[in-house]
Amino acid sequence: MRGFTLLGLFGLLMALAGCQSGDEARAEPPGKGGPNEPGEDPPAPQPSSASTVPTTGVDGSTTVASTSSTSSTSSSELGGTTGAPSTSTGAPVPEACGDGELDPGEQCDAGYQDNNDSAACTKECKLAACGDGLLWVGEEQCDHGANNNDAVYNGCSESCEFGPRCGDGVLQPDDEECDASAPAIEGLAPCDPVACRYLARIAFVSDAKFFGALGGLALADAACVAAAVSQGFDNSSSFKAWLSDGVAAPQTRLKQAAEDPGYPYVRRDGQLLAEDLADLIAHGPKLPLEVTETGAVLAAQEPAWTNIGADGAPFSVVNHCKEWTSKGFLDSARVGKISPASAAELAIWKAERRWTSAGVFTCNYVAHIYCFED
Q1: What is this structure's pTM?
Q2: Which residues of 334-361 are buried (b: 16+ CB within 10 A; e: fewer)?
Q3: For the purposes of burial, counting CB atoms within 10 Å of the CB of 8, is it exposed (0-12), middle (13-18) or buried (19 or more)?
Q4: Average pLDDT over residues 176-204
Q5: What is the C-alpha separation between 296 and 370, in angstroms, rounded?
Q6: Which residue, 277, 310, 308, 292, is CA-closest to 368?
Q7: pLDDT category of residue 178 using cuts at 50, 70 and 90
Q8: Do 364 and 328 touch, CB atoms closer than 8 A?
Q9: What is the C-alpha separation between 338 and 370, in angstroms, rounded?
């Protein structure tokens, strides 16, 4: 009995010792070796916030159910709504000009095909208006924008109609010699309908008076050129004085006119003087050359230096104010009278060519000069 008891006690002690040995083994720190250390089981996978768990349906099929901890983002959280596009501020994007619909900021919109800068609705969806610088065909004659002006020649009026211009039937003396659309006036030279210039050469008597010391033929010509330039005459640089130094004559000084028969001479006011240079020399002017470069009419019998006789030749080879360089009272030169004293004397004035050869003046007197375009 005692032996059996001791034997049982010994077994119990051995059992207790075995249990203690197992607990110590399980209590050993897990840091020895890597996660895949032989003899050790790998750690069990941990579920993530976005893992999926397979489930079995009623019919035995397997489906995947999301176990994500985050919810789907709504359209409202993205800062906009579905439908029309939006700007960063959330305001609707305006429709483009040309879509055919009147949108904010547009005055009109006839559509891409019909918006036109020459029509009622421009390409920028603005209503056509006088002064916008665009020509509205059928409604405006012109449109120069901010430059519209009622007084500018060849310009556009403030009502978008043509301003004063060549061919409007009204003579603008500051810009035109004539206007072919104006009522015809007897005795006037033909008018170029495009340029509103006489189809003729112009002649005038100088507004200024000079001593006989004109500075020679060259400076006398320069005085004519300056007068023509001051009035904006065409071909201004070609003007020459009707003078002779005892050698030169109109036919040699006005070479172009001498070689171009049939081209008339007119006064500043357009009145026909002669059919050409040959007619002027042979018969004199048809009416007095008494109109200056400015259009003013001089008083009767005003003198003009010439030294040219009735036949168009030099009147004297010696009396020409020393070739137009002297204003001494001992020197002299031939003068013409630009017009007769009265209408009763007109016939004899013309017959005797008094316009170019009427008397003699001493060079200390002052007189006008005739100027002819070449």
Answers
A1: 0.60
A2: bbbbbbbeeeeeeeebbeebbbbbbeeb
A3: exposed
A4: 85
A5: 14
A6: 292
A7: confident
A8: yes
A9: 9
**Whole-angstrom Cα distance, residue 325 to residue 371?**
18
Q: Which residues contact 55 (CB under 8 A, 6 or more apart)?
A: 62, 63, 64, 65
H or E element that contains 232:
none
For 33-79, what is each residue's pLDDT tens digit?
A: 444 444 444 444 444 443 343 443 434 444 333 333 333 333 333 33
| Beta carbons within 8 Å of 297's beta carbon, 6+ residues apart | 290, 291
| 223/239 Cα distance (integer angstroms) | 9
Asked if residue 292 lies in contact with residue 327, where contact means CB atoms within 8 angstroms, the answer is: no
Q: For residue 37, what are the contacts with CB-CB under 8 A and spacing of at least 6? A: none
Confirm if 141 and 162 have CB atoms less than 8 A apart: yes
Phi, psi of 259 (to 5 degrees): -95, 0
Domains of the chain: 201-372 (3.10.100.10)
pLDDT at 275 over 50: yes
Q: For residue 323, give every residue at least 6 positions away whose Cβ sits within 8 Å of its Cβ, in sequence order, or none.
A: 216, 217, 245, 246
**Tokens of residue 99, six digits:** 């879509």
For the segment 139-164, the average pLDDT, to the nearest whole number, is: 93
For 104-128, the DSSP string reads TT-S----TTT--TTSSB-TTS-B-
Number of other CB atoms surrounding residue 196 within 10 Å: 21
Please tell me whether residue 281 adopts helix, strand or coil conformation: helix
- Contact call for residues 285 and 370 (beta carbons, < 8 A): no
Tokens of 292: 């200056």
Phi and psi, residue 81, nearest 5°: -120, 160
- Tokens for 119, please give them: 């029509």
CA distance 259 to 277: 9
For residue 200, the 8-state DSSP code is: S
Tell me the residue type at 57: G
* Six token digits for residue 34: 């890597």
- Residue 95's pLDDT is 67
